Every structure is written in structure tokens, then in C-alpha cells.
UniProtKB/TrEMBL annotation:
Residues 70-103 form a coiled coil. Residues 40-63 are annotated as: Disordered. The keyword Coiled coil applies. Keywords: Coiled coil. This is Tetratricopeptide repeat domain 31 99. Signal peptide: none annotated.
Length: 103
């Protein structure tokens, strides 16, 4: 919330920031509501940002289903961890070879 509040109030004078803090939900981030990831809970919509595009063309983008990240099983997570450790080890060995070549 701190970062969102910071970005919502960015570019405003101190007086404007204080006014925005007193009114919940009026701040915007890139022209979006502060809680743009969550469904509205009976609060009034935020006023459009002056730099935001007209609402007519952007509504269709809100309907696009975003791909969901699949949850990993413990076995898959362990396998990925082993691969990362092995890759780090290979990188260390390469760096050591380069260091020895320079001597």
C-alpha cells in the first residue's frame, strides 16, 4: 500500500497529497484504480486520469483473461532448485577457468 500511495501521490503538491489521503480510493496508478487487481467492493470508481485514454476503447482489454501461473509440485520445485544449483556451479567453474587462463 505504501508504494501504491507513493505512486498515486507522485507529481502532486503536498496539499493535493494530503487531500487525496483523506479520500479513500481516489488515487490512481497509471490511470487505474488503486485496487485495479481486485473487484470493486461497493466503492465509487476513481475519476479518470487526464493522461488516461478514453474509456470507450480500453474496456475490451479488461475482459481479456490473463494466463494463470501453474502451481508447482514439491517434486518439480526440487528439480528446478537442483537445476539452479547446477547452473550456478557451472558458472563458477567457467569463471574459475577464465581466471586461471589470465594468470
Amino acid at each position: 500500500d505504501y508504494l501504491l500511495d507513493h505512486f498515486c501521490n507522485e507529481g502532486k503538491t503536498p496539499r493535493q497529497s494530503d487531500m487525496a489521503k483523506g479520500v479513500k480510493g481516489l488515487g490512481t496508478y497509471c490511470g487505474l484504480r488503486k485496487s485495479f487487481l481486485y473487484p470493486p467492493q461497493g466503492s465509487e470508481p476513481c475519476p479518470p486520469s487526464p493522461s488516461a485514454p478514453s474509456p470507450g476503447g480500453s474496456d475490451s482489454l479488461l475482459q481479456v483473461a490473463m494466463p494463470q501461473k501453474l502451481l508447482l509440485t514439491e517434486e518439480e520445485a526440487n528439480h528446478l532448485a537442483e537445476e539452479l544449483v547446477a547452473e550456478e556451479e557451472r558458472m563458477k567453474q567457467r569463471a574459475e577457468k577464465k581466471r586461471l587462463k589470465k594468470k
